[in-house]
Amino acid sequence: MNRQHITVGLDVGTTKICAVVADTSGKTAEILGFGVSPSTGLRKGIVINIDATVDSIKKAVREAEASSGIKIKSISVGISGAHIRGLYSSGVTGLRGKEVSGSDVKRSMDSAKAVYIPLEREVLHVIPVEYVLDGQDGITDPIGMSGVRLEARVHIITGAVSPMQNLLKCCEKAGFEVSDIVFEPLASAHAVLTDEERESGTILIDLGGGTTDVALFKDGSLRYASVIGVGGNHFTNDIAVGLRITASEAEKLKKTTGAAYERFVDDAEQMEIIQAGGQTRTLPRKYVAEILQPRCEEIFELIKEEIKKCRGCGIAICGVVMTGGASQLNGFDKLAEAVLALPVRSGCPGHINGLKSELRSPVYSTSIGLATYGYEHEVKDAAYAGKVSGLLGILTEWARDKIRNADYFNFNNRKEGGMLCLKSRR
């Protein structure tokens, strides 16, 4: 098998680390194997214990190697967290009345990239949103068109250098080269959104253990994204505190009897819990729903605020797709529809060969997306995204002496923030 067509996605999450091996030599990607290990070295998507994270990465990758029969040397790793930021920029190049060529597009993109990036931040992606040719906006592919002035409008995604370096250091200490770093909502969207959803204006909500990613896709591009510092671990903690049980027992209850919407739980249904002292008690299952529903409603209210920001950009929202392990609570999608007043569906990985039944779950959306993202990702930023070559190789592609001032948009606090959203003119 040609190793050039083998890709490995590594999702380093707050609760689990998952490695997925894919063969991208055919017309569609094929999953060859995967491995999963518990994660104890991260909090809210940020590495807080390097040794623990390294051990978990090794376990997940070894399992993926055994499952696929492939010796893994390099990986594509996902990143998220409240340190992720974005800004909108544009750049112009002259055409002198000739047809637009690939080099013209690159020059306009290079011009758009020449923005001020603080020294403590690094570029992850430069995503083309649209091109404007002689005042005509909404162009997705200008090559071959005639004009005199080409403008590129782009969405630049950056991350803080320190969390990125620590993540890279963990991967390298585990013995693997990092071939790419991908903003996780881009990977998840690749695994669960249809082409029509990416075009029509869809909100992707990825609920992980420590954070919740909110991303808007329109016209095939990422238009807006934010990271909310609340996730599935908060559900577990709420159950543990509310029922006075251990975190491990609370996690088990969340997975087996958890419900986000009280109306979906039978009043007569009972459950057994084991308290900290080892005593067993029988309680109505509705108790768990009564604990979880307020937390779920809080998350949806925070998401609702992010959706308002998207609508403020003039983009119509057609629906919501939810993925991630924490989205599996019974009634979660119905409660989301009630609070958000939008159609909601559960997003599971699909349209990929070799998916075993256990991988067709929202839990593995990000890792599968990471393994297949580089094969045919919708945002055409591969030529412009910063490539990684070792821990000290996180360098911008353009010289900092060419920078110019630009408005920078960042997160205000744990619950608010996002990326600049380009207004829709259509």
UniProtKB/TrEMBL annotation:
Q: Which InterPro entries match?
A: ATPase_NBD (IPR043129), Cell_div_FtsA (IPR020823), FtsA/MreB (IPR050696), SHS2_FtsA (IPR003494)
Q: Does the keyword Cell division apply?
A: yes
One BP annotation, GO: FtsZ-dependent cytokinesis
Chief place where the protein resides:
membrane
Keywords assigned by UniProt, alphabetized:
Cell cycle, Cell division, Cell membrane, Membrane
Protein topology in the membrane: Peripheral membrane protein
Q: Which Gene3D superfamilies does the annotation name?
A: 3.30.1490.110, 3.30.420.40
Q: Does the keyword Flavoprotein apply?
A: no
Q: Which GO terms describe its cellular component?
A: cell division site; cytoplasmic side of plasma membrane
Q: Spell out the subcellular localization from the entry.
A: Cell membrane
Q: What does this protein do?
A: Cell division protein that is involved in the assembly of the Z ring. May serve as a membrane anchor for the Z ring.
Q: How does it assemble?
A: Self-interacts. Interacts with FtsZ.
What the record says about family reads: Belongs to the FtsA/MreB family.
Query: What protein does this entry describe?
Result: Cell division protein FtsA
Native organism is Candidatus Sulfobium mesophilum
Name of encoding gene: ftsA
